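OP here, attaching both records as promised.
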Amino acid sequence: MNTAAAILVALVALAVVLGAVAYVQRRKSQRLRAHYGAEYLVAVDELGDRRKAEAALKQREKRVETFHIRPLSLEEADRFAARWRKVQAEFVDDPRSAIGDADAVLGEVMRVRGYPVSDFEQRADDLSVEHPKLVTHYRIAHEVAVRHARGEADTEDLRQAMIHYRDLFADLVEPPVDSARQDEPRTFREEPEDERAARVRDEEYERDTVHRADRRRRRDRSGDGRTPHV
């Protein structure tokens, strides 16, 4: 084989290797984007670079792999469901106190399931690995709770926050399908008719609010490096 032919073969082999690497990277990117959805876009927007965002998301996954996440037992699920019903009933008479209680109950559920106690941003990042779609609800609801602590949230904001908290609560507390009681008359996800109707209106509100929440989150981080807590 002459020199020119050897160079051609080497170039073809290099092109094949580079093509394979690009293909694998593209598939990884597609997987991350499909899994994380809005969280993927938020990470790209926040870090300003797709590769940095994907590296950050992979780092989240590695961190969560070290946790011992478990489903709640039926007894634990019943106990938390009772607490949640109390929070919902409290919301009718005292929505402002109920929001703080809802945030606390969610934090306790996460702790019992095996998520470490940490600041909100770390909790949300950890939660996004297994609950990427619903973590948006958590971010929006917590952002309302923070604004409420500042005296900036009205009753409608608080109602929206409760709906977002409830969706995440349902996903975290719902027992696995194979262990759920067959005679359970109502799942945690069921809701009164008026709330079901309100959900339709809330979908558009959520799309607008998630962007506002992300902007506030980035602004808070750029200010003093910390996110306010409730």
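Record two, same layout:
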Amino acid sequence: MKDIQLILFDVDGVMTDGNIYIDSQGESFKKFNVKDGLAIELLHSHGIKTGVVSGKASKALTQRCEKLGFNYIVTGCKNKLPRVEKICNELNIGLNQVAFVGDDVLDLPVMYVCGVSFAPKDAHELVLEHAQHITKAQGGCGVVREVADTLLLKRCGTLANVYNVLLDKIVADDVNNMEQ
């Protein structure tokens, strides 16, 4: 896990609980876990690029991913491996430097070849069989945060060390903003 340069997430069933809520006008809504937002900032503070590769596409999904500051946002993509390979080429990294978090069979081609694979505990049975790490959290219930903590704990030794990097960055950013 120490060589991971990029972590990619499926969305439905990983960042959300997989449910889609549709209102009377046909607009769909998804519920995201706020704890996952800090995880993206945490990964960035440790120099790890982030992205989503989702089989579905929606305005809500794109807005949430943009707000969280993902480096890569790929939606409406069922054949995920070619897109992941393209991102790796852009970053000049190998698939072995990618962590992928998925929950369903469309995620398996990437999970087979990436450096580290994660799945929420309520993922599809085939995904659970092939994931190297299974989270304690179910999809939509803090999976991203748990994966970030797990990955960075291997690098930093303690959770305090993991979060001190982020806290130091926040303090430095505040000082810079006050000076401007």
